[in-house]
Amino acid sequence: MLVIFTIIIASVAYGANYPYSDSSNSAGWTQDWTLSDEFWNQNTLDSSKWYDYNPGWLGRQPGLFVADNVEVGNGKLYMNSGIDWNMKQEYKNKGFHTFTTSAVTAKNSLLYGYVEIKAKVGGSRVSSAFWLSNDDRGGSGTWTEIDIFEQAGTVRTKWNDYHVFHSNTHIFALKGTSANNLASKCGCTG
Fold it and tell me: Structure pTM?
């Protein structure tokens, strides 16, 4: 099963019940409200749908996911980054420094379907992304990911490069397959 994992999200359904690509609903789509949020009329994240962190990943070093960086207001989800000058030593020992970021992760899973997002990505070296991820290494032995979009800068990124978005599919682990036979390699740690 795929679990929706979002780094930046503003709106899933754009105020309509059908995909933009099929606004007349000729395919008979039904919206899964457990995986949808418009962030209207609320000032906090709906904890019945979303985690304000990633339960399976602390973040991409040096940026630690911190729940306080997730805010809802004015009909939008705000995912911030910041500085924590008093970062705990246990996180520093894992490669994090003073930089904090944010993640929102769905509590429910999606096996197949259509997903949409309306988002404004960060204009800095922070990664902005919308992923579908299945990390079941402890169960089925499979870990896959679909990056619907991922955008990130570096120290040398020019302004025009911020308009480059990457879409990827990754197979990090597949039961019965040697890691040497997988195209995706990941030195990720949890």
Answer: 0.76
